[in-house]
Write a structure and sequence with these properties.
This protein has 174 residues and is mainly β. It contains three helices and eleven strands; from the N terminus they run H-E-E-E-E-H-E-H-E-E-E-E-E-E. Strands 1, 4, 6, 7, 9, 10 and 11 form a seven-stranded mixed sheet that branches. A four-stranded antiparallel sheet has the order 3-2-5-8. The longest helix is centred in the N-terminal third of the chain and has 10 residues.
Length: 174
């Protein structure tokens, strides 16, 4: 799945180059997993899949103002695919929290999903919830030293064996 700024060849190349895409394998049903939100906010800055969010040392060592990872996962039916989706918000969001993509599945089927949050190759959190689901996760970045980078990505599987793997969001301590 490509997260395009423009529906063009160059838009697809840009999405690949910048990590604005994720992989979904076909489920046993006509419903596919979709990642309607996956972004991190810290200190007024926002990063999406494939981007780096720089976190000042004062935030790394503080107990408040920690970064938050926002995740929304749902099913997307063939009917939903042909409907336009609102554009992703601009990342200049110092004064406002980014809005969700506005996607809501029409499905009334309650499918369970396991959402695994992976950081630097290790499972840091796992959720087992019915779809659609929304998660706000506060990662532990206290071990990051200035100049170090960590990443957070998702590995999601639903009870129909649909599978979604995201590109990472990178967190760099300044």
């Amino acid at each position: 799945v490509f997260l395009l700024k423009s529906k063009s060849y160059q838009g697809a190349i840009d999405a690949l180059r910048t990590g604005k895409c994720y992989v979904v394998t076909k489920a046993k049903t006509a419903l596919a997993l979709t990642l309607s939100d996956f972004w991190m906010m810290a200190g007024g800055s926002v990063a999406y899949s494939g981007e780096i969010i720089n976190i000042p040392a004062t935030v790394v060592n503080a107990k408040q103002d920690q970064p938050v990872l926002y995740i929304k996962v749902a099913h997307r039916s063939a009917q939903d695919i042909n409907e336009p989706k609102p554009a992703q918000n601009n990342k200049k969001a110092k004064d406002s929290v980014p809005k969700s993509s506005g996607f809501h599945s029409r499905s009334t089927i309650k499918t369970m999903a396991t959402v695994k949050i992976i950081s630097n190759g290790r499972l840091v959190q796992e959720y087992n919830q019915p779809l659609p689901l929304e998660v706000r996760f506060t990662p532990d970045i206290s071990g990051l030293k200035p100049g170090q980078t960590a990443y957070y990505r998702l590995d999601i599987i639903d009870s129909n064996q649909g599978h979604l793997i995201s590109n990472p969001i990178f967190v760099k301590a300044e």
